[in-house]
Amino acid sequence: MIDIIRKNYCIFQVFVYAIGFCCAICEAATQVSSQKYRSLRSNEVNWRSGPGYENPIEWIYKRFGLPVLVIREFSNWAYIRDSYGTCGWVNKNFLSNKKTVVVTSEESHMNSRPDGTGRTVAILKKGVICRIYKITNGRCYVSTQDKKYSGWIEKSDCWGGADFSGDDYQ
Asked: Pfam families attached here (predicted)?
């Protein structure tokens, strides 16, 4: 009799775990469909191997405003990817809604006009982070973080908040 109870209990546990696993897959699939770009709010952000302070720090980012793609969220944690494809978990308190881009080409010529016919305002080097305000015809209106320069750059020269379907940022 005790063997039958143990067997039924084991079957019950497997069933409960299977339901939990299916729910986790459904939740992850839903979260993946709502990916969004955010930026780092601090000069120092810890990337962890999992959601929670008990998980080890795998990387420390020291780039205020760096754009990241939020792939999924869990409680107060976000699983994010950077422009190099590196993924990790960060606390959502270290993410900002400010839309930024990072220059990914070796050089990007910032122009005073959206059609590219104006004067060159600046030449941005790879790794420069800019705030993005508008996208028109494959060009982004941006300003450098120090707000010293603003103008239009090619969308293909950058990664981050420029990959969206609207025309204006708030």
From this structure: SH3_4 (PF06347)
